[in-house]
Each structure stands twice: as C-alpha cells, then as structure tokens.
Write a structure and sequence with these properties.
The protein is α+β, with helices and mostly antiparallel strands. The protein has 15 helices and 45 strands. A hairpin with an 8-residue loop joins strand 18 and strand 19. The protein is globular, with a radius of gyration of 30 Å.
C-alpha cells in the first residue's frame, strides 16, 4: 500500500489468489486456512450426560455435513454413534429442574412441558400445543408442576393430571366501575325513588352481580399491566404466592441497516439496536397473594447505597446528575428447598451496584444481606451478568452461596441469612468458574485458573472451604461435566495448538489412577499435515509496572525478517493469551503463516481482558484506548528490546474491540505502528450499544469526556502509517455506518494513506470463506508491502 493511495471502496470481486500468494513462503495458504471448520475439523461441543448416566451426548459433525448433529457415546460399549432426528427429538432436554430427591426432572422442549422419572426413564408430555410453554418449576410441595404460557402461570397436578390457570394478566387498565360524580349520583338515586320499575330492575341486577362476583372469586384475580410487559413469573414452592416483574419499556430509537445484496433485488432495511444512552427501562417486582386475592409491590427503598451518585460526576460541577430510579433487573426469587425463604439478586441500571436481599413475600419487604459496589462496574465470573449472577442455597437451607470480587478476584462466599455473617470459601489471585454443590452435600465442584491465568482445571473442595483438590491434569482448558452419580467426567479439552476433543475419565475421587480417554477425533488430514506451533506464554512489564500476559510466536532464525505483528483480540473482556484452543482459531492459523514468513507475532491480554481479576478488568474504565492501548505500545517496545525487532517494522491488527485498538494505535501512536488493519471496528463509542458501552464509559450525556477520550474518530488527524479498514456492510453489531462516518472524517482531513474493503453480505462475524480469504489476503499484503516493501 502506497501512502499516496487514494480512497477506494474495494468490493468483493474476483481476486487472483495465486498472485496474492507469491510472497507467501508457508506451506499453508490463506485460502486453505480460511475454510474454517472444513479445514480444521468440526469439533465436539455441548457435552452432557443422559439422565441414567450411561451415555454422553454431544454435538459433532465428523462427516462434514451441512450442520452439527447429536451424537452419543455409550460408556459400557465404548462406542459412538449418530442420533437420528426422531430419537433426538424425543430425548429429554439436557436442561431442566429436579425435585429435591432428584427422582423426577421437569423441562421445556420445543415449546412443550415434560416430566421424566429418572429411575425408569419414563417421559410424560404435559402440554402439546402450538403456544410456547416454558419457565417450568415445582410448586405445592412438589405435588404440582408450574409453567408459563402466554404470560400466565398454569399448574399441572402430578396425581390428578388437572391443569389450572393461576394468573390472569391483562394488558389494559382496570375499569373504574363507571363512577358517577355528585350531580349524576343524585339524579341516579332520584330516578330509583321515582320509578318502581327501575328500582326493581336494579335489585334484580344487584342480586345477579352478587352471584357473578362469587363466581369470579373462583377465577384468578385479573391483574392489569397497563401496557407494561410481564416477565419472570414464578409461583412459590408452597403454591401461595406468585412473583412477577412488571417492566415499562422505553421507546429508544433504533438504527437501520440496509441490505444491498438480496434475493428480491431490492434494498431491504433491517431494524437494529439503538445507540448508547438509552433511557433505562423501569423494573418493579410484585407479589400476588393467591388466597387473599391481592397484589402488592416489593419495596426496595431500603437498599444500602441506593441514593449513590457516581464519582465521575465530580468532573461536571455545572451539570446536575439525575437518576431517579437506579433499580435495574431483579432476578429471583430463588427459594430454599423447604420454601421458607427466598432471596433476590438486584442490579442497578448504572451497573455499579449489586444487592442480594432476603424477601418477605407476606408483605413485600426485603432485608439486606450482601451489597457489592464498584465505582467502575459490577462484573466478573459468576457476578454481573445481564440477568444476575451465580447464586444458590446451601444444604442447611439457612445460608446462601454467591460469588464476589470483594478481594479483587471472583471467589466463592457463603452467607447466613439469619445472622448475616459471611465467609470466604476460596481466596487468592485466581478466579472461580461454575461452582456446583456435590451430590453428597459435603463438597464443591468448580473450575479455576489457579495454576496460571490461562490454564483452567477442575477441582473439588470441602463445603466449608479449605484445600482445593485438582481432578484434571492436562494443561489447557478442561470443561468438565460430571455424570449424574459424579463418578465419571466428560471433558471437552484443548491446548493452544490442539483443537477441542471429547474425553472421558473416572472421577479421581473414586479412582486416583484414572486416566482420561479420548472419545472423538475431529481434525482433518489436511490440518494434521502441518506442524502447528504452540506459542510461548510470556509476561512483559507495562510502563506502570504491571505484568502483561501474552503469547509470542517466533520465527526460525534463518527466516526472521525483523518485522512484527501485534494481534489485538476482540470483545474487550475476553481472554486470548491462554493455553487452550482459541475461539480466534483462524487468526491462530494466520499467525503460523506470518511466522513462516519471518514475522514475530505477539498476542496480548491487555487491560480489560478476562481472567486477571477486577483491577485488570476495570483498567479501561472511562478511557478505552488508554491502558489497553499503552499495553500494545509496551508490547512493541518489548519486541524491539528483547527480540531484535526493527521499530519501523511493527504492524497491528484485530477485529471488533481489536479493530478499535488498531484505529487508536494508528491515530495516537504513529511512532510505534507503521501499518494497521482494523476489522469490524468501533470508530465512535457513542454509536455502539448501551449494555456494553454504558458499563465502561457511562453515557454520552452524563460523561462526554470519557467518550471524547475513547473514540477514534476524534483522533483521526494523527494517522501517518498505512491503514486498511475492513467491514461487513450488514453488521448489526458494530454498524457499517460507523466506518462510513470515519471515512468521511478521513476525507475531510485530507488523509490518503488508507483504504477500505467492504463485504456486502457479511455481518459482524463473517460466514463466507471467500470473504475471510479476501480479508486476510489484503491484511497479509498490507504488512508485506508496508513493513517489508514487498510488492504484490
């Protein structure tokens, strides 16, 4: 790419891949690796056990069919076979709810409700309708099954088979009874006094109304939502109370994404998300007392710190901060086993607080149990999802367990709901993932990255905490699903240069000499013909003294060209300098091509990445493109100082958040990066979605300084090196409009050393191999020409 190159929108046309590969010295071709799963192999996923523990079920596609299918591995015969459509359709869902003794399981599948008896395997279909029935749960001391259909809760009696409607939600307003004013009431009474026929008719009507009202008392109480949506309907275990969320949705303006290449031949518009700064929805939790036929709200005005005003508002002394109702989504109630207690998990709409409270269903009051606060935003494994965090009851039915970043890392805690005393069960500079109480009610099972931030192992630990007993041994990622009796483990395992495969292993608790046995073999012969590199896992010092984790790929001395490429992973809060098979597997293979051609490649888990605790996660608060960018710059300095890289031969690339960092690097660190390829990039955070962006930068109207510091479009004048922008035109995540706006800014600034390649049929995640191939061929050519002076 020449610095004098004029803007060109490069649409997908026929491309001479033979010509594009003339400077490629690798045995691999870009076209080959960009076939994705068809080149690597279709890997197993979603492993789960049959209810009887005799089979492992998983999704797989060893035949390279149109899509994955369900497969089963029989533990007795040690054979694997494909499950046909009819058999798969009739299998129980891997999800669902067990009763307390785990003899029965209820679930929703294909929109209908089922119950299976574990011992016999018998399946009873409870509903068979065209409507969707879901949110199944036990009630009335496990004698009935509750489910939701068309907003309302129904129960099905296990013994009698009787179905009963419990709620009657109406979208309109409650009628006022046609109340008369003082004048009309006088006229009404005068008419009755004057005319006997009117008086007699009214008496008959009153008697009929009396019986109608008595009949109405047998039906569910009409509950009027007045246009608000009803969510999270749940009936208590004793069958006495219904809880439900009433949500008032705000009408936030959305964005239109035009589709130009369509079957119809016409441009078709897709209506997509709004932009950050939405007016928040209003959430209210209500209780319906079934026996007493009354509803009442759950009062949350006593939550600790509910009136909190964020610290960042001090930067705006002349602006009044207003957030009249900070209550965000309310998860729960989560009931204990005997149904005597329930807790709620509550988040705020500014994402800075999480409360766990005890709910009194009789009067709708709450008692504070745990308050988590972060001046940045609440998150971390098991903590701050869009619908609450990990939370459950301990076997004593008096204490709860939950996760918190109180110490700076997500750890496991218990809390007694009577005396409010909490206890940390795990501690250290590592994180806990997916905790589960064992069948014996005396132990925990969970995953943790205790040995290394990029190594996930499976552990058992005493219920009260203490020593963590490691049950897996292979370095990398071990996603374990225990058999129903917990004596065997199904493991989806991978290493950095070894794609995911399914293994089975006896639980070492029962057999200390157990060895994992590989069940699947998914990789293709073409993939196996290449000797894939395992990157070196390193740390380097950032300019503030922090240890930054990274993966480095080093070329052989005889081909080293003193050029380097820094790859920036996407999503921000994601981990890629780990020891398992990457979700960026195409990029991993591309890095092998780069190394074959003499480049050194550095893949950094910069500030904001997952796996390193709270401080690392929030290191980008109010300034994306700050420490997350300086970590890339410090990585470049590390390459120059420690690996003999020429400081004028460093390129950078990445997609989504990685594309954003690439733009910030090219605009703000021109002395560091000579060339950059920005894929599906954010150019202006004010144009991105609310749920992600408002956590990190607050909102444009309340914290405009954060958006000005963090958005590349404000720094475009700093572009000096060669920039390649690549974007899908139907991207409904990071809208194509974002790069159109940036291109206009670059044009107005008179910048000519950039190009844009657009992909008319691609969304945020590319699908077509031809698009992937074209995209990475252009990136390869960019680095060869800009860093090495090689013409293509």
């Amino acid at each position: 790419m020449k610095r004098t190159t004029l803007l060109s929108l490069l649409l997908l046309t026929s491309f001479c891949f033979t010509q594009a590969q003339k400077n490629n010295n690798s045995k691999l071709s870009i076209k080959q690796i960009m076939q994705g799963d068809n080149f690597v192999g279709h890997l197993p996923s979603n492993a789960h056990w049959s209810a009887d523990g005799k089979n492992i079920l998983f999704n797989w596609n060893p035949e390279n069919a149109f899509s994955d299918s369900l497969y089963t591995y029989n533990t007795a015969s040690e054979t694997t076979k494909k499950v046909g459509f009819e058999a798969s359709y009739n299998l129980p869902s891997p999800y669902g709810i067990y009763n307390n003794d785990k003899s029965k399981k209820i679930y929703s599948k294909n929109g209908d409700v089922y119950m299976t008896t574990i011992a016999s395997g018998e399946i009873i279909q409870i509903t068979n309708t065209q409507d969707y029935e879901g949110n199944v749960h036990f009630t009335n001391n496990e004698q009935q099954i509750a489910y939701v259909s068309n907003k309302n809760i129904y129960t099905w009696d296990i013994k009698t088979g009787v179905t009963k409607q419990i709620t009657d939600f109406n979208n309109g307003k409650e009628k006022d009874g046609n109340k008369r004013d003082e004048k009309d009431e006088w006229l009404h009474q005068d008419q009755l006094a004057l005319f006997d026929v009117l008086s007699e008719r009214k008496a008959k009507k009153d008697r009929q109304d009396y019986f109608d009202k008595k009949e109405a008392l047998k039906a569910p109480l009409p509950i009027y939502s007045e246009g608000k949506s009803i969510q999270n309907q749940h009936i208590s275990p004793d069958g006495k109370y219904v809880s439900y969320l009433m949500v008032e949705r705000e009408d936030n303006k959305g964005t239109i994404t035009p589709h130009y290449v369509t079957e119809s031949g016409y441009t078709e518009d897709q209506h997509t998300r709004s932009k950050v700064g939405n007016k928040p929805d209003t959430y209210e939790l209500f209780i319906y007392d079934i026996e007493n036929r009354k509803t009442y709200p759950v009062a949350l005005d006593n939550l600790e710190g509910l009136d909190y005003i964020p610290e960042y508002t001090k930067d705006y002394p002349d602006k009044t901060y207003k957030n009249d109702n900070r209550i965000g989504y309310i998860s729960g109630p989560i009931w204990n086993k005997d149904g005597s207690k329930a807790v709620l998990d509550i988040n705020t709409n500014d994402y800075k607080d999480r409360w766990i409270v005890l709910l009194n269903t009789e009067d709708g009051t709450v008692t504070n149990l745990d308050h988590q606060h972060d001046i940045a935003w609440i998150a971390g494994p098991g903590i701050g999802g869009y619908r609450g965090g990990e939370l459950g009851w301990m076997p004593d039915d008096k204490s709860i367990w939950f996760q918190s970043e109180k110490t700076g890392y997500s750890h496991l805690y218990t809390l007694n709901t009577t005396n409010k005393k909490s206890k940390a069960l795990t501690s250290g500079d590592f994180e806990i993932y997916n905790p589960k109480i064992a069948n014996d009610k005396k132990h925990w099972y969970f995953t943790a990255n205790k040995t290394h931030p990029g190594d996930r192992q499976f552990y058992r630990m005493s219920l009260n905490g203490g020593k963590m007993e490691q049950l897996t041994s292979k370095t990398g990622r071990n996603d374990v699903t225990l058999s129903p009796d917990e004596k065997q483990m199904a493991i989806l395992y991978s290493y950095a240069n070894q794609p995911t495969e399914l293994y089975i292993k006896e639980n070492p608790i029962y057999n200390k000499n157990a060895v994992a046995k590989q069940v699947t073999h998914s990789t293709t012969k073409d993939f196996e013909a290449y000797d894939w590199r395992a990157p070196e896992f390193i740390t380097f010092k950032a300019n503030d003294g922090a240890n930054v984790h990274a993966r480095i790929y080093k070329p052989a001395t005889e081909v080293k060209n003193k050029g380097a490429i820094i790859f920036v992973h996407g999503a921000g809060y994601l981990q890629n300098a780990h020891k398992w098979w990457s979700s960026y597997f195409r990029e991993y293979m591309f890095h092998n091509i780069l190394v074959d051609n003499g480049y050194t490649v550095l893949d950094i888990d910069y500030r904001g990445s997952a796996g390193y605790g709270r401080d690392w996660r929030t290191g980008i608060y109010r300034h994306m493109g700050g420490k997350d960018l300086s970590d890339q710059v410090d990585g470049a300095a590390y390459l120059v100082n420690e690996h003999g890289i020429d400081k004028d031969k460093i390129g950078i690339y990445g997609g989504s958040y990685g594309g954003f960092i690439t733009l910030m690097g090219m605009f703000n660190e021109a002395d560091t990066f000579t060339a950059g390829a920005a894929i599906r990039s954010v150019g202006d955070w004010a144009a991105y979605n609310h749920g992600y962006t408002a956590r990190i930068l607050n909102t444009p109207t309340t914290d405009s300084l954060a958006y000005r510091k963090s958005s590349p479009i404000y720094f475009a004048d700093g572009l000096e090196g060669d920039l390649l922008i690549l974007h899908g035109m139907v991207d409904d995540n990071v809208h194509f409009q974002d790069m159109v706006r940036l291109s206009q800014k670059l044009i107005e600034l008179g910048k000519t050393n950039w190009e844009m390649a657009v992909y008319p049929v691609e969304r945020h995640g590319f699908v077509e191999p031809s698009s992937w191939t074209d995209e990475y061929t252009r990136i390869f050519n960019l680095f060869n020409e800009s860093l090495l002076g090689k013409k293509n």
